[in-house]
Amino acid sequence: MAHDDVQPASLACGDCPIQHRAVCARCDADELEQLEKIKYYRSFEAGQTIIWAGDQMDFVASVVSGIATLTQTLEDGRTQMVGLLLPSDFVGRPGRNRAAYNVTATTDILMCCFRRKPFEEMMERTPHIAQRLLQMTLDELDAAREWMLLLGRKTAREKIASLLSIVARRDASINMSPSARQMVFDLPLTREAMADYLGLTLETVSRQMSALKRDGVIELQGKRHVTVPDMDRLLLEAGDDSDGGFLI
Amino acid sequence: MAHDDVQPASLACGDCPIQHRAVCARCDADELEQLEKIKYYRSFEAGQTIIWAGDQMDFVASVVSGIATLTQTLEDGRTQMVGLLLPSDFVGRPGRNRAAYNVTATTDILMCCFRRKPFEEMMERTPHIAQRLLQMTLDELDAAREWMLLLGRKTAREKIASLLSIVARRDASINMSPSARQMVFDLPLTREAMADYLGLTLETVSRQMSALKRDGVIELQGKRHVTVPDMDRLLLEAGDDSDGGFLI
DNA sequence: AACAGAATTTGACCCAGATCAAGCAATATC
DNA sequence: GATATTGCTTGATCTGGGTCAAATTCTGTT
Predict the structure, then answer these.
(1) Measuring CA to CA, which residue among A160, A175, A112, A147 is closest to residue A248?
(2) Residue A128: strand, helix, or coil
(3) Per-residue pLDDT at B236 exceeds 90
(4) Do A110 and A176 fall within a single domain?
(5) Is A159 in contact with A237 (CB distance < 8 Å)?
(6) Same domain assignment for residues A141 and A229
(7) B145, A144: Cβ pair inside 8 Å?
């Protein structure tokens, strides 16, 4: 998951052919050449499952463009989203060859993959890769823990408001000044995906969206296009004491 | 408490004075000497808050003995536990000087601390420390995500059964063969702490404990001492498809 | 042993969110 | 242009777990 400290500009790192913050921010020419040899691209269509939980993983990868979700399921079909993969996010872990989650493309997606074994060997020789991955993993852990608070203790309305403010914030950091009061963005998730993320049913998501609209917290044009007239109001509804999103 | 006196063999790494898997498993004599210089011990009593969210952190640390919890709170007082710190676990992150969570001792606890700046500098020079921390952080992330599934999608009864099976499993890995059908252990948590961990109220925890007892899934001697006559039954109640605990 | 205080259990009641079931709107297919 | 298909909304009803309150252990102290 990406974070507030990661500026979109930092995603493309100069003339690095991989253009990925996890592995190339501090790579020298020699290291980049090594990476070049073990890398390949894979693309998936929206809705495709990229990796099934339990699958053999012979690669680690980073998202170049598009969005994917990490989900866990109970055998009776209950599913919980446990993470989002946004451009520049990393998936797969050195040292383990089985996937722990389902990874599903929610939009068309392009992944930059590295063969696992050589990547691990390279990591041994190239300390700053482990350091960078540690940094990213710690960010993800913070995000996951923030989400635990949401899942365990927030009301449905607060959950929705939290998700909206997070998406708004991320969109804003890409499209406009993050301090603007009014924000406009498209939801990258269906109601069902929102429900899976928030630990709710899609009906409750829909009802709370309608409630927030009725109360003037948000405006909806169509189903995906959202206008937030007053971000402070939305953040208040989210129930966070802090200024909002660690998440995403 | 059982955990104070029993240390898994793997925690003590040879003649390393720090005896901590995060930082010394592959340290040579020279590195150990450096660590020795920046380390100190702190101890806390059960109930004490070790670190407040937002506090300045001038150290990173690992638990030598005892148990602590990581909690997040909303400003109206709702709290959610987001992690447990057990002996050998690491807390604090290189590269950030503000704590993100409250850390509270649930038993008397001894921590081995390293001054942050020199630790970071040492990490730069000593690749395997970052590699080890990455490994540990990835494990924690998996645990957090497993917990997200629990928080978002499991019923109260399943949550309790999950927690019990996790504690049983961890205890078993210390005290006896993990494959035994019957298990006996002490809960290291109060009902309130269990509730904070599971995203429930303490009344619901109590009720579900009683229900599991009534249904013969567990036996209770006193409030903390638990006997599980049939671990498979408990795991079934936990609703996991896998064989249980990534967690803890 | 008796008491105080905390932790836990149990009961009665309530409500947020789940479930079940229709309708509606937008897009894709023929 | 008619018709599925898919995603979303809304309504009616039910229920798991929350809330409030009162016992009942347990623990430590005098």
Answers:
(1) A147
(2) helix
(3) yes
(4) no
(5) no
(6) no
(7) yes
Residue A246 placed within a domain: no
Of A82, A93, A198, the CB nearest to B149: A82
CB A72 within 8 A of CB A101: yes
Confidence of residue B178 (pLDDT cuts 50, 70, 90): low
Chain A positions touching B131 (Cβ under 8 A) are 123-124, 130
Determine, for residues A153 and B75 on separate chains, whether the beta-carbon distance falls below 8 Å. no
Domain membership of residue B83 (yes or no) is: yes
pLDDT for B238 equals 94
Structural domain total, chain B: 2
User: What is residue A241's predicted lDDT score, i.e. its pLDDT?
Assistant: 61
Question: What pLDDT, on a 0 to 100 scale, did the predictor assign at position B26?
Answer: 66
Res. B45: pLDDT tops 60: yes
CATH code of residue A52: 2.60.120.10
Domain of residue A194, CATH code: 1.10.10.10
Contact B131 A130 (CB under 8 A): yes
Residue B229 contacts strand D, CB under 7 A:
no
Q: How many Å apart are CA B147 and CA B72, to the nearest integer?
A: 15
User: Which residue from B75, B131, B144 is facing A144, i.e. has the nearest CB?
Assistant: B144
For residues B40 and B134, membership in a common domain is answered with: yes
Interface confidence (ipTM) of the complex: 0.87
Top pLDDT among A50 and B13 is at A50
Chain-chain contact of A239 with B74 (C-beta, under 8 angstroms) = yes
> Is the CB of A176 inside 8 Å of chain B's CB atoms?
no
Task: Out of A219-228, B89-98, B192-201, give the one with best mean pLDDT.
Answer: B192-201
Using N-to-C axis directions, what is the helix angle for B116-125 and A127-153, rounded to 10°? Answer: 130
Choose the final residue of a domain: A132, A150, A168.
Answer: A150
A28 belongs to a structural domain? yes
Question: Is the predicted pLDDT of residue B200 greater than 70, yes or no?
Answer: yes
- Give the count of beta carbons closer than 10 Å to the beta carbon of residue B223: 12
For residues A97 and A177, state if they share a domain: no
Helix (H, G, I), strand (E, B) or coil at B39: strand
User: How far apart (Å, rounded) are the C-alpha atoms in residues B10 and A72?
Assistant: 30
A20/A68 same-domain check: yes
pLDDT tens readout for residues A86-110: 888 899 988 888 999 999 998 888 8
Whether residues A128 and A168 fall in one domain:
no
| B146, B159: one domain | no
Judge whether B177 lies within some domain.
yes
Give CA–CA dist A169/A238, Å, rounded: 13
Q: Which domain holds residue A43?
A: 8-150
pLDDT in tens, A106-148: 888 889 899 999 999 988 888 888 888 898 899 999 999 999 9
